[in-house]
C-alpha cells in the first residue's frame, strides 16, 4: 500500500494529511479531517450528495482522489456560511422549504453556490439541467429550483 502526504487548504485552513494514494477526497474530508457535513450517498458518482468545491468549482468528492487536491483549495459545506450568518443559498433553502430528509441538502447547496457563480444560464430549466447531477430522493426539486432562482433574482436586483 502506497501512502502520500496531501497538502491542501480546506475551508481556509492548511492541512497536511497522509493518505493511501487510492483514498478519495470524500473519505479524506469525512474520515481524516472529520468534516462530516459532506455526505456519502452512492460513493460512485451518481447522486451528487458529496459535492464540494475545488478551487471554486464543484466536484464530486467521491470521484476525486485525495492526491488530486495537492496545493489546491477545497471548500465544504462547513466553509459556507455559519450558524450565526447563513450563506444566502442556505437561507433561501430554509425560506423555500427546499428539503425534506436533508440527505442531499449539503450537496445541493454546494452545487447551487457554485452554479450561481457560473455564466450562461438564466431559467428554471437551466437550473434543473445544470443541477441534474444532484439527486433528491424526497423530490424537493421544485423548491430547490425556487431557492436557486430567488438568490439569482436577489443578486440581479
Ligand atoms: S456520493 Fe458522490 S456522487 Fe454520490
Ligand atoms: S431532501 Fe431528502 S433526499 Fe433530498
TrEMBL record:
Sample GO molecular function, one term: oxidoreductase activity, acting on the aldehyde or oxo group of donors
Top-level taxon: Bacteria
Annotated keywords: 2Fe-2S, Iron, Iron-sulfur, Metal-binding, Oxidoreductase
PROSITE patterns, A to Z: 2FE2S_FER_1, 2FE2S_FER_2
Pathway named in the protein's UniProt entry: Alkaloid degradation; nicotine degradation
Any Pfam family matching the protein: Fer2_2
Residue span, 2Fe-2S ferredoxin-type domain: 4-80
Protein name in UniProt: (2Fe-2S)-binding protein
Source organism per UniProt: Nocardioides oleivorans
Amino acid at each position: 500500500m502506497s501512502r502520500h502526504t496531501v497538502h491542501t487548504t480546506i475551508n481556509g485552513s492548511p492541512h497536511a494529511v497522509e493518505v493511501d494514494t487510492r483514498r478519495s477526497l470524500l473519505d479524506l474530508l469525512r474520515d481524516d479531517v472529520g468534516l462530516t457535513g459532506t455526505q456519502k450517498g452512492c460513493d460512485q458518482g451518481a447522486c451528487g450528495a458529496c459535492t464540494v468545491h475545488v478551487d471554486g468549482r464543484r466536484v464530486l468528492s467521491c470521484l476525486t482522489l485525495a492526491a488530486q487536491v495537492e496545493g489546491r483549495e477545497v471548500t465544504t459545506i462547513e466553509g459556507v456560511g455559519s450558524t450565526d450568518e447563513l450563506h444566502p443559498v442556505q437561507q433561501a433553502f430554509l425560506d423555500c422549504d427546499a428539503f425534506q430528509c436533508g440527505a442531499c441538502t449539503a450537496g445541493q447547496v454546494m452545487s447551487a453556490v457554485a452554479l450561481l457563480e457560473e455564466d450562461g444560464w438564466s431559467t428554471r430549466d437551466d437550473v434543473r439541467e445544470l443541477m441534474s447531477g444532484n439527486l433528491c430522493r424526497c423530490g424537493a426539486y421544485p423548491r430547490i429550483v425556487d431557492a436557486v432562482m430567488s438568490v439569482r433574482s436577489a443578486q440581479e436586483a
